[in-house]
């Protein structure tokens, strides 16, 4: 449950430690998804609350602006396929494109709780399988 690496780093570590794949995937998915409902329901409200505070305001405003701009770009590209766009955004195994960021963008765009959670869950599962398989074969090839 560490931002930026989320389940992606955990699946690599699980492969490196030769832990069972499906058990590791299940634990990583659960760990990655635990904060998602809270992020969806409260993060946008907290950011709006803190945007005018002296110490945290600039950072909170940055997060809101980043979320709005990312959300508008996602909406412009996706149109009616916003569910699939959110799924792909979360599924792409790059830093900053995980479920936490996707959920924040979904809450700022007001995409709907159920649809956002399902898209993020599917994206997290896909990313976990992809990273798990790639890291397993990567460690096998280099003999670790």
What does this structure look like?
The chain has one domain. The model has no long low-confidence stretch (mean pLDDT 87). It is an all-alpha fold and 144 residues long. The chain is built from seven helices and no strands. The longest helix has 30 residues, at 113-142.
What string gives the helices and strands in order? HHHHHHH
Radius of gyration from the CA trace?
A: 16 Å
Return the structural class. Answer: mainly alpha
- How far the N terminus sits from the C terminus, by CA atoms, comes to 25 Å
Short description:
The chain is an all-alpha fold and 144 residues long. The protein is built from seven helices and no strands. This is Putative small multi-drug export protein.
Task: Produce the secondary structure layout.
Blueprint: H1 6-16, H2 21-33, H3 36-50, H4 57-78, H5 82-91, H6 99-109, H7 113-142
Helix pairs in contact: 1-2, 1-7, 2-7, 3-4, 3-6, 3-7, 4-5, 4-6, 5-6, 5-7, 6-7
Transmembrane segments: 20-43, 82-104, 116-139
Protein name: Putative small multi-drug export protein
InterPro entries: Sm_multidrug_ex
Keyword list:
single chain, about 140 residues, mainly alpha, 7 helices, about 0% strand, globular
